[in-house]
């Protein structure tokens, strides 16, 4: 019987060593340690042994059982580790895997120009105001002293929603709202989008960005306007830039002027970029606030005076960065934006 027990142990261990999966290990356990297993059947025959042989065979049988169980436990653990490693390998995320670098965006030249303008005017003591893009005809035209037959009121120039409502054609209505609410003295700028029924080309767009400024106080003169705008232009484009004020007409200012700056390319000497004039495109319009506008907002023009100015932020950006086509500002072309 001792030989039988040793044979059972050796065969069981050999089968365990050659087992390739957990099912084969379980089959070995059942075949040798189960209720009808070979070791169990041998132990049932111990009653036929003499009193002297029973302790010896019993001790050997327990040793065989323990050794088989230890081998089963070890084999089971090894196979489970193999399965776990295979699972980890299949589900592994390689955090070292090379990938395309994330593309970092660039600040839009329009936004850069707007922020630079706002910072400049805030340093000069102006307050930033905002207003609605859908505006009343009264604020956009009537209170700004625009005649009823003024071309800007035509359907060919303005987007009307109904007879009394439109998409604002300028940010001047924000000035009207501010003067009616706060009165004088007042020092403000109002940037934002405006809308006009223009054909799209290199210098025109039906939607563009404008920044208008207004100062209303006692003893404000044309000299204050010129000096303020000279400071603005030189701060934006450099101290060597010169300005030119040309007489013009705006219904809400009197007198009025348009402002040009010397060509950024040739410095005023004349080149192909400025058609040999030495001057860049018109930068902005300005003038002394018309007394009727002050009066319409409840401000006494006999006590207060003021000046106003308006500039296209898109146009300032084009001059500042040498952009020749306004459509580039709205195309969202990364090749263009990456230059800024």
UniProtKB/TrEMBL annotation:
Classification via Pfam families: Phe_tRNA-synt_N, tRNA-synt_2d
Catalysed reactions listed for this entry: tRNA(Phe) + L-phenylalanine + ATP = L-phenylalanyl-tRNA(Phe) + AMP + diphosphate + H(+)
Gene: pheS
Compartment(s): Cytoplasm
HAMAP family xrefs: Phe_tRNA_synth_alpha1
Cofactor: binding details: Binds 2 magnesium ions per tetramer.
Oligomer and partners: Tetramer of two alpha and two beta subunits.
Family in the record: Belongs to the class-II aminoacyl-tRNA synthetase family. Phe-tRNA synthetase alpha subunit type 1 subfamily.
Binding site for Mg(2+): 254
GO CC entries: cytoplasm
Source species: Anaerosphaera aminiphila DSM 21120
Keyword field: Aminoacyl-tRNA synthetase, ATP-binding, Cytoplasm, Ligase, Magnesium, Metal-binding, Nucleotide-binding, Protein biosynthesis
Enzyme Commission numbers on file: 6.1.1.20
Cofactor: Mg(2+)
Record GO terms (molecular function): ATP binding; catalytic activity, acting on a protein; magnesium ion binding; phenylalanine-tRNA ligase activity; transferase activity; tRNA binding
Protein name: Phenylalanine--tRNA ligase alpha subunit
PANTHER family membership: PHENYLALANINE--TRNA LIGASE, MITOCHONDRIAL (PTHR11538:SF41), PHENYLALANYL-TRNA SYNTHETASE (PTHR11538)
InterPro entries in the record: aa-tRNA-synth_II (IPR006195), aa-tRNA-synth_II/BPL/LPL (IPR045864), Phe-tRNA-synth_IIc_asu (IPR004529), Phe-tRNA_ligase_II_N (IPR004188), Phe_tRNA_ligase_alpha1_bac (IPR022911), Phenylalanyl-tRNA_Synthase (IPR002319), tRNA-bd_arm (IPR010978)
GO biological process: phenylalanyl-tRNA aminoacylation
Domain annotation Aminoacyl-transfer RNA synthetases class-II family profile: ranges: 117-319
């Amino acid at each position: 019987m001792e030989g039988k027990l040793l044979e059972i142990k050796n065969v069981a261990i050999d089968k365990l060593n050659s087992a390739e999966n957990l099912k084969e290990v379980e089959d070995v356990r059942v075949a040798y340690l189960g209720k009808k297993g070979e070791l169990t059947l041998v132990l049932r025959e111990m009653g036929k042994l003499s009193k002297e042989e029973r302790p010896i065979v019993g001790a050997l049988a327990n040793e065989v059982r323990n050794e088989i169980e230890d081998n089963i436990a070890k084999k089971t653990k090894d196979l489970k580790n193999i399965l776990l490693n295979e699972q980890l390998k299949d589900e592994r995320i390689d955090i070292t895997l090379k990938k395309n670098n994330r593309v970092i965006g660039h600040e839009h030249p329009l936004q850069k120009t707007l922020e630079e303008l706002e910072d400049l005017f805030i340093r000069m003591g102006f307050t930033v105001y905002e207003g609605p893009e859908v505006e009343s005809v009264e604020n956009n035209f009537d209170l700004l002293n625009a005649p009823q037959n003024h071309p800007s009121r035509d359907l060919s120039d303005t987007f009307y929603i109904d007879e009394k409502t439109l998409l604002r054609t300028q940010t001047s209505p924000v000035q009207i709202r501010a003067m009616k609410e706060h009165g004088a003295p007042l020092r403000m700028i109002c940037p934002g989008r405006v809308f006009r029924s223009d054909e799209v080309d290199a210098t025109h767009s039906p939607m563009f960005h404008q920044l208008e400024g207004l100062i209303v106080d006692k003893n404000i003169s044309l000299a204050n306007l010129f000096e303020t705008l000279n400071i603005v232009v030189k701060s934006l484009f450099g101290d060597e830039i010169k300005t030119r004020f040309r007489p013009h007409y705006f219904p809400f200012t009197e007198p009025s002027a348009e402002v040009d700056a010397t060509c950024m390319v040739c410095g005023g000497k004349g080149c192909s970029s400025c058609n040999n004039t030495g001057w860049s495109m018109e930068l902005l319009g300005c003038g002394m606030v018309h007394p009727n506008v002050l009066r319409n907002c409840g401000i006494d023009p006999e006590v207060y005076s003021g000046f106003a100015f308006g500039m296209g932020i898109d146009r300032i950006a084009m001059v500042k960065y040498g952009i020749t086509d306004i459509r580039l500002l709205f195309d969202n072309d990364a090749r263009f934006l990456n230059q800024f």
